[in-house]
Amino acid sequence: MPNKIYFTPGPAQLFYTFEEHLKKALFLDIPSISHRSKTFIKVVEETNEALKELLELPNGYDIFFLNSANEAWDRIIQNLVINTSHHFANGSFSKKFYDFAIDHNKKSAITESSAGNPFQSMKVSEEAELIGITKNETSVGYTFTEDEIAQLRKENPDKLIALDIVSASPSLPVDFSQVDTAYFSVQKGFGMPPGLGIWITNEKCLEKAEEKAKTTSLGSYRALPNLKKFGAKNQTPETPNMLFIYILGKIAQDIIKAGATRMRNDTTYKATLLNQAIENHPLLDHFVSSQKHRSKTTVVAKTSETEKILKFFESRGLVLGTGYGSFKENHIRIANFPTHSKESVEMVCDLMKKIE
Ligand SMILES: N[C@H](C(=O)O)[C@H](O)COP(=O)(O)O
Ligand SMILES: O=C(O)CCC(=O)C(=O)O
What we know:
This is phosphoserine transaminase. Pathway: Amino-acid biosynthesis; L-serine biosynthesis; L-serine from 3-phospho-D-glycerate: step 2/3. There is one protein chain. It contains 11 helices and 14 strands. Strand 13 and strand 14 form a beta hairpin. Helix 1 crosses helix 8 (242-258), helix 2 (38-55) crosses helix 8 and helix 9 runs parallel beside helix 11 (342-352). Helix content is 39%, strand content 17%. The model has no long low-confidence stretch (mean pLDDT 97). By secondary structure, it is an alpha/beta fold. It has 2 domains: 5-13 and 260-352, Aspartate Aminotransferase, domain 1 (Alpha-Beta Complex), CATH 3.90.1150; 18-256, Aspartate Aminotransferase, domain 2 (3-Layer(aba) Sandwich). The two termini are 32 Å apart. The site of 2-oxoglutaric acid has 5 residues, from loops.
């Protein structure tokens, strides 16, 4: 067993049942059976059902398997945007989605706020077909509130809304009826190795893709109508990452069995402890000043002592995250995912007091 605990915001600490499910998957020959076999079709069905239950997806939303959230950015632009999208960005990953749209030659617009700061305006350009928002900006620990998502929905009933839930899922409750598409990758809150992305879409997305397909290519095997065609049979167009699809379903079932509400309450409790530890520490300060926008799943503090703090923890077997990008040396990021026990977070907070 590994002797370190990773509080890095992805890849992160593996889910505590990951190893057990990996062994069982090998015992069941999951990586060797045909992905068109009845056995694997059942695996896909069970994973879809567990995710729908855990995320509380309303009816009419489909789940598709990709490789990463980066791929979801590409697929969303390819399938759901003909001319232009509008992006809210205040960190590296929300900005990247906009950059992808520009790479695809879209005339996209951006509402940009300096890193970790709230948006001054929620106005969306008239022509935008899709709005890109990030529930939890991993790079700086900024959360888009449910009220803000609901406001965007109300003011833009006819546009598609795409929600990045990469480091939010499954810890933060999301009202999916307010958005049309959402995506995440499994190396964050689900505690798995990287390499599997989940793309959630509703009927409006499919209609948009079909409209776009009349005049433009949507790409090939992972065009949304093709994903839908295979998905209807609990299959995928390609040979997918069968091992991870199996394990993801099992981890989702584990969280449901232990209580999804309890996991979400624990997330709040652990975030509160971490935030108090930051407030009480002379070397640390919150990076996101607006309290309601502070991430519960990626707690970020600014400090001039990143290296010293990370070394202190690493020598005790606890790996905290550095800052991201230009903040590498003056932030620390502490992931608070379902696999991080209350005891392990309490240990981080206790140890933090010892750093002077
Ligand atoms: N760390 C990013 C984020 O938090 O958004 C990430 O690059 C996106 O996920 P993938 O690397 O799995 O594409
Ligand atoms: O540190 C992180 O937030 C993840 C890093 C990452 O995914 C990336 O740099 O692409």
